[in-house]
Amino acid sequence: MTSTISAEPTRRDFLYIATGAVGAVGVGALFVPLIAQMNPDASTIAAGAPIEVDLAPIAEGQIIKVFWRGKPIFISHRTPKEIEEARSVPLSSLPDPQPDQDRVKAGHDQWLVVIGICTHLGCIPLAHQGNYDGWFCPCHGSQYDTSGRIRQGPAPANLYLPPYAFVSDSKIRIG
Amino acid sequence: MSGPSTKSSTPPAWPHSLRRADGSICEPPPFEPKSTMLQWLEARLPILSFSYSSVVSYPTPRNLNYWWTFGAILTFMLVAQIVTGVILVMHYIPQVDLAFNSVEHIMRDVNYGWLMRYLHSNGASMFFLAVYIHIFRGMYYGSYKAPREVLWILGVIIYAVMIATGFLGYVLPWGQMSYWAATVITNLFSAIPVVGDPIVTWLWGGYSVGNPTLGRFFSLHYLLPFVILGVVVLHIWALHVVGQNNPAGIDPKEEKDTVAFTPYATIKDIFGFAVFCILYAWFVFYIPNYLGHADNYIPANPAVTPAHIVPEWYYLPFYAILRSIPDKLFGVIALFGSIVILAFLPWLDTSRVRSAIYRPLYRQFFWIFVIVCIGLGWLGSKPAEGGYVIASRVLTAWYFFHFIIVLPLLGLFEKPKPLPTSISQAVLGTKKVVASLAVLLAGAALFFGTPAPASAQERDQPSPPRNSWSFHGPFGRYDPGQLQRGLKIYREVCQVCHSLNLVAFRTLGEEGGPDFTEAEVEAIAAQYKIKDGPNDQGEMFERPGRPADRFPPPFPNEQAARFANNGALPPDMSVLAKARQYERGFPWFVFDAFTQYQELGVDYIVSVLRGYAPTPAGVTIPSGAQYNIYFPGHAIGMPPPLSDGVVSYTDGAPETLDQYSKDIAAFLMWAAEPTLDARKRIGFQVLIYLLVLSGLLYFTKKKIWQNVHAPDEAAPGPDPKSTAS
Question: Predicted ipTM?
């Protein structure tokens, strides 16, 4: 702008600032729908509702994989040996110390339910492999024990636990 | 930028042709970055100085009126279409079995998806409205004449690509109109001798319009806007080389004939766009389906052509030209010729005077031409029969006559009025023209918005009477009690035959709907059996419905539905309320745009439910059908579904046919448009915001232009009131 000299500079300035501010608010508001549209839509959210899994057919020592919200959930029916292994490890030797009791529901010690995604970069670890009789991630070599805890490799944390609850002794509800 | 080429025989490029009063060349002030970092960048890529000289210091004629803001409006609209289009693509599926439902998924499930889609579909109409104003402005003020021929031709190319893009986009929702538009338009190429049929097969990628066609149309619809963008860059480049024309049509000679682009033109363009957005928002939030065709809410059906196919309003004049020629090949030639001829305008118009202000005869022929174009648009929406065909032929002949005979001869015989010596001296009497053009173009816009009119047979139908609806008007909301009653009717009566495939149980509990509690929604869902599977044994099984499920259909497939219904197919009811309308006729459809009458579908449904009557004498109805006053053709396959007392209400509403028909229609409106409440609520906020913003911009514009409009300079500014288009 070249020399715009007005008799009332303050009133003019106020007008310019007000117009600019109102315009900026509008442009800002425009981004709300533009960003919100990429969040999960109503049908995706509805499809992410809790699921129920019947545990009865899972044999001791067997690990099954179910899907909840597009994520694999490992359900491991652990043997007494596996539980013993998980509980005899001194916590101080773990990269992400957490007692096995905190990773299962009290009274259902044989059932380990974890999100089957390596905490390193999202690959799916292979069951019953590796040095700790738990999971081994083929991508970058992370190894998890029978409690799904990280023992070796680049992953920073134990396998995460999904929200779940026992509906009965042989049925859980994930989500 | 580069220095002036004063020795050259050709006139120097704008703005170097501009002289100061003392004869020295007027150069806009150069961009001189102060910070070292900017100087460093400037030495390597002079993007800042380029932007500065293009959109800041660039001199524009000071007498540009508001019709010149449409260039900027079009740029904004192109960006708006690209942004909303890119977003829609994130959710749309270009596959024949999924396309229609994916659009409905956008409308129902995606966050603000309805907004994105309505912005995009109505944005196309706004884009064309703006481009027509832009083109007519160029014609009126002779903006195509030397040295702006290339600028004009680039504009014609943009317009042609816009037409192609708009057509391709219209196919994507894969409704009835989409499918048949694709069929009819691709068949235009079959008129080409010898190679016509192979070309059409090649365009389709098959033996009819189908999945390969949809895929390529989708791909090209995504590509072409970026082609437009590229040509727009050339268009603006050419504009900046030759400079803008202006209402006086004479070249700016002195520095004081121009003002700097920023802030003068910038603020004016922004103000113009804000006012334009008010119109845009009115369509998007209050009458989003006004410019569309109800038939496009019926999924594509290759076995049935809609009774009356018409293109979108912006193609109607060309459609009229096509149909007016009784020969297939010549019809197609005339259609394409009517667009191509625009590119030759700079040479067809032989007058050396640019602006129609100084061409008394041309001005009259210009307005005749505008009326001819509007008339062709109106005829394009009418059935091709009787007097309409004759009128189409007359107007088509005039369309070409205007270009081929009138324009060349006018230049030879017309005696132009004396031109003003300078821009500062010019602009008198433009206001009247501007206002009349505004009225005409606004009228044209509305005129073209006619819904598909009925065929001759349908014209004997009485129009359904209007009802009052809680969801009508700018503050309209659904009445949850009414929707609950409507759902009850659907579940007890309609769902025996009619599916509701697109409606999920969960939406019954969402805001702006029947307002059921979560527990009620779960209970309703659980009463339905949903087919699921396969289970661990590999078998399909049935389980109780969950809120995430959709209403299961009453019949497993179309054949079963037809077999159970005497050969008739009960239509899916999900978007029925938007897929039905009736002819409003002139002038009612014009008022509908202002009164926001968007309830044609529900009024029609109510009327059909109430419209059963004994067959009048002299009318024969096929066996198995019923006579209905309002059903097109009167023979309806559905027996009267409702009568007094068939559904019991618990809320005390009268158990009468009148009440039932309104309740089920309201429920179907909600099923078709579940986001209506949010749309009208947000729409009101947006409109208030735009009004405030436009007001502020108006005063800011006035302040900024104050010193240009100083009393000692005899340059009456453009009239801001004239923007109301």
Answer: 0.87
